[in-house]
């Protein structure tokens, strides 16, 4: 790909000025339109050292409203970032709808610079390509515009620019030993970039190679690409909004008539759960003490070995999530875990991809995050209440599996609990809460309303479990009619998973 690039391309000053006089106001207008339409924009600048990424970013943002964009200069990960999964620091920087995020180098650093410096194995490299493609697909599927530039210059031109920088005290600091090394091994590094471009060239996120030896030519090509991509997206979004109501009505009708897609769903998971399982109070106390003592030891070992743990709790209203979480954490060092309750998304959270708020809460190495309700709201509440489209919640199964795979590959233990009770037990617990002044806060009108949709939720939960229970992030169905049994099963499952990991 890079071998075929003609680096001799130039643009006369007069031609450049003429083009920019047209494109600069176009870009400013497109920024306003993207904001009005809620289109998130991500622009990535990659390329060899001294190719002019910083200069081109400065040129690009010149006509833009500074309140609507943010530039991220990606360097070596900080200590905090290194303690999270690879994509964590990029997920947390994804823009909200209507804003622009510009990356001066990006997630591609791992498969270019880090690879050149022998910081990742071949196996890790292959997986990194997969993670990057998945990440980009997830963002673009959700409506983001992703524009990727690779700025290319020759070895000779690169050395010339390095020498110029080194000859001045004010700019010498910009050239590092690593830069010089990559210039000396230019062909080797170029081959790595060739592979990177090839492996991550996708329909949803194609690369645009910029011939960057002539700065005017480079600037004009970057502008024309951004203007073209944003114009296409703005038009697409306007058409989408114009047809939104029609599509919604059609989708609602389709959903009513849609047969089940997976034969496995005919044989439901939840119907096979034995809710008669129970422990006596004495059995419970004996088991609880042993398990909590063991959990205390294991928690310390997790911290020592820097193993993160992600625990997700879902279940029927009054299913016992809070009680199980309380017994799980009672013996744990509070400095080493966080319980993250998931409520309805805030306006800021709604303006991002639905996974964004969960990525922000993921634990660093050696810590535990317990989610009281999770990202599975997309395929349950949002699905049933119509807060997302059929296409969105169906796509979410793949997106969730991809996220959990990334967490697991990064070293995390990932477990998901579904707290199962029957309809009669739920009603009993609801009435008990209403009659107890100290527990009345736990019951709301919405709980009773959700109960009326029990069958819909049951269907959604069965499908969710079948499609997202994996070897790396299994669903554990907890028989919850007996609270003692449920709490013990949760503790046993967590202890067992940690012990299994520590054996490896």
Structure explained in plain terms:
The protein is an alpha/beta fold. It folds into two domains: 2-242, Rossmann fold; 268-503, 3-Layer(aba) Sandwich (Rossmann fold), CATH 3.40.50. 53% of the residues lie in helices and 12% in strands. It has helices at residues 13-37, 53-61, 79-82, 88-91, 113-116, 122-141, 155-166, 177-184, 186-199, 215-242, 244-257, 281-304, 321-329, 347-350, 356-360, 381-385, 390-409, 423-435, 445-451, 454-468, 483-503, and strands at 41-47, 69-73, 100-104, 145-152, 207-211, 309-315, 337-341, 368-372, 413-420, 475-479. α1 packs parallel to α10 (215-242), α8 crosses α9 and α13 (321-329) packs across α21. The longest helix is centred in the middle third of the chain and has 28 residues, at 215-242.
CATH architecture of the largest domain: 3-Layer(aba) Sandwich
Instruction: Report the sheet with the most strands, covering strand number, pairing sense and barrel closure.
Output: 5 strands, parallel
- Regarding CATH, which class of the largest domain? Alpha Beta
Rg, Å, rounded: 27 Å
Strands, total number: 10
CATH-derived topology of the largest domain: Rossmann fold
Strand order of the largest sheet: 2-3-1-4-5
- Catalogue the unreliable spans: none
**How does the helix and strand content classify structurally?**
alpha/beta
Give the full name of the CATH homologous superfamily of the largest domain: P-loop containing nucleotide triphosphate hydrolases
Shape: globular
Query: What is the average of the pLDDT values?
Result: 94
Percent range of helical residues: 40-55%
Strand content: 5-15%
Head-to-tail CA distance between termini: 42 Å
Count of the separate structural domains: 2
Number of helices: 21
């Amino acid at each position: 790909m890079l071998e075929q690039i003609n680096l001799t391309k130039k643009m006369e000053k007069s031609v450049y000025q003429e083009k920019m006089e047209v494109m600069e106001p176009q870009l400013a207008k497109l920024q306003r339109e993207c904001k009005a339409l809620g289109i998130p924009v991500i622009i990535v600048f990659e390329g060899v050292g001294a190719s002019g990424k910083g200069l081109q970013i400065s040129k690009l943002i010149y006509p833009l409203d500074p309140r609507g964009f943010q530039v991220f200069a990606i360097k070596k990960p900080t200590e905090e970032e290194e303690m999270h999964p690879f994509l964590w620091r990029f997920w947390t920087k994804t823009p909200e709808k209507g804003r622009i995020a510009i990356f001066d180098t990006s997630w591609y650093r791992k498969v270019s610079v880090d690879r050149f410096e022998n910081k990742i194995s071949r196996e890790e490299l292959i997986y990194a390509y997969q993670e990057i493609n998945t990440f980009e697909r997830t963002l673009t599927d959700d409506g983001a515009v992703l524009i990727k530039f690779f700025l290319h210059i020759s070895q000779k031109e690169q050395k010339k620019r390095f020498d110029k920088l080194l000859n001045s005290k004010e700019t010498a600091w910009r050239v590092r030993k690593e830069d010089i090394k990559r210039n000396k091994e230019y062909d080797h590094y170029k081959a790595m970039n060739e592979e990177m471009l090839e492996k991550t060239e996708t329909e949803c996120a194609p690369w645009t190679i910029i011939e960057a030896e002539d700065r005017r030519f480079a600037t004009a090509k970057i502008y024309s690409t951004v203007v073209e991509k944003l114009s296409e997206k703005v038009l697409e979004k306007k058409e989408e909004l114009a047809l939104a109501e029609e599509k919604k009505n059609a989708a609602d009708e389709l959903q009513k008539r849609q047969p089940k897609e997976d034969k496995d769903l005919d044989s439901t998971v939840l119907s096979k759960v034995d809710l008669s399982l129970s422990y006596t109070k004495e059995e419970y106390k004996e088991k609880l003490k042993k398990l909590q003592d063991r959990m205390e030891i294991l928690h310390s070992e997790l911290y020592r070995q820097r193993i993160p743990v992600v625990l997700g709790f879902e279940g029927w209203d009054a299913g016992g999530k809070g009680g199980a979480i309380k017994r799980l954490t009672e013996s744990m060092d509070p400095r080493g875990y966080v319980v993250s309750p998931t409520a309805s998304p805030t306006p800021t959270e709604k303006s991002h991809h639905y996974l964004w708020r969960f990525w922000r809460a993921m634990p660093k190495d050696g810590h535990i995050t317990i989610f009281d309700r999770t990202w599975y709201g997309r395929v349950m509440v949002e699905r049933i209440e119509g807060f997302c489209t059929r296409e969105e919640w169906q796509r979410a199964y793949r997106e969730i599996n991809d996220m959990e795979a990334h967490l697991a590959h990064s070293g995390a233990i990932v477990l998901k609990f579904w707290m199962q009770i029957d309809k009669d037990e739920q009603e009993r617990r609801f009435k008990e809460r209403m009659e107890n002044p100290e527990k009345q806060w736990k019951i709301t009108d919405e709980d009773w309303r959700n109960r009326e949709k029990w069958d819909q939720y049951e269907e959604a939960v069965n499908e969710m479990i079948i499609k997202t229970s994996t070897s790396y992030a299994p669903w554990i169905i907890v028989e919850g009619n007996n609270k003692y049994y449920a709490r013990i099963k949760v503790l046993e499952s967590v202890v067992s998973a940690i012990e299994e990991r520590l054996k490896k």
